[in-house]
Write a structure and sequence with these properties.
Layout: H1 3-9, H2 12-21, H3 28-37, H4 45-56, H5 58-83, H6 87-94, H7 96-118, H8 124-133, H9 138-161, H10 163-168, H11 171-200
Length: about 200
């Protein structure tokens, strides 16, 4: 199977058939698909999340996708942080654009990572790697991933589960925006507390 055929295989219908085929394994396939996207960014995370919402229901599908995507992002981060001194990663850190992004992540911490991870088409795999190479704290990254992925995946699940209803009832869209704002506010408060604790150590 060539790369083009591989990409074309991942349609919503095919993913739903895959989940149905391995239904005996419960939520495991639904967790593995978004988790793999963190390692293979060419995989369609949006379709995985929509398929999980359709196959497992809105809330269960959302939780399965959120757990899988968050776990994948954290695994990439910890692997890169562990292997950051290897030759390949050292080469990356010397690249001008990577260095600039690392500095940006270190300066803005939670806020920058959270915002990027809120949007489904942002380069989240790059952010995971850059954050692993940077000096951003583990606590800040975990917080940003958990909350950012929560917003992004809930939004996709919400839209994918009942697209027609979302268009006909714009109040649902407003509700999603309010939730995003609340999570942003909570995240900033926790970030300030983490900064204070780190300075006290």
């Amino acid at each position: 199977m060539d790369f083009q055929s591989f990409k074309e295989y991942f349609t919503l219908e095919n993913i739903l058939q895959l989940l149905e085929q391995y239904a005996d394994l419960g939520p495991i396939p639904g967790i593995l698909l978004p988790m793999m996207e963190a390692f293979l960014p060419m995989l369609p995370l949006v379709l995985f999340v929509m398929a999980n919402a359709a196959a497992f229901g809105l809330w269960k599908g959302f939780l399965i996708s959120w757990f899988g995507a968050s776990l994948g992002a954290l695994l990439v981060f910890f692997i890169v942080r562990r292997l950051g001194q290897q030759r390949f990663f050292k080469f990356l850190t010397k690249h001008h654009k990577v260095k600039k992004l690392m500095n940006w992540v270190e300066r803005h911490g939670f806020g920058f990572i959270f915002l990027l991870l809120c949007f489904p088409f942002s380069p989240s795999s790059i952010i995971n790697i850059v954050a692993g190479l940077s000096r951003v704290s583990i606590q800040q990254f975990i917080l940003a991933v958990m909350l950012g992925k929560l917003v992004m995946i809930f939004t996709i699940s919400f839209i994918g589960y009942d697209l027609k209803s979302l268009i006909e009832q714009p109040l649902r869209t407003i509700f999603v925006l309010i939730i995003m704002s609340i999570l942003w506010f909570i995240g900033k408060k926790i970030e300030v507390r983490l900064d204070v604790e780190n300075h006290e150590r």
